[in-house]
Design goal:
This protein is mostly helical. The protein has 1 helix and no strands. This is Interphotoreceptor retinoid-binding protein.
Length: about 70
């Protein structure tokens, strides 16, 4: 193998590694987003169950913005 071939091999391995890292981070963020969506849906579901009229959902807004 020539020096040029070794350089190309290193470049390709680096690109594959960086692609795998990027895919892992993207999937982790997607999983976190999915958990947030699920928590929101379950929270809305519990508000509907506690409401006097199941067709009306009243959201509580914390004055502190939390």
């Amino acid at each position: 193998a020539s020096v040029h071939d070794l350089h190309d091999l290193r470049k390709n391995l680096s690109n594959v590694y960086l692609t795998q890292v990027a895919a892992h981070i993207t999937l982790q963020q997607l999983q976190d987003f999915g958990y947030d969506v699920l928590r929101s849906i379950l929270s809305i579901h519990s508000m509907v169950e506690m409401a006097e009229d199941p067709y009306t959902v009243q959201l509580y807004v914390n004055p502190a913005g939390q």
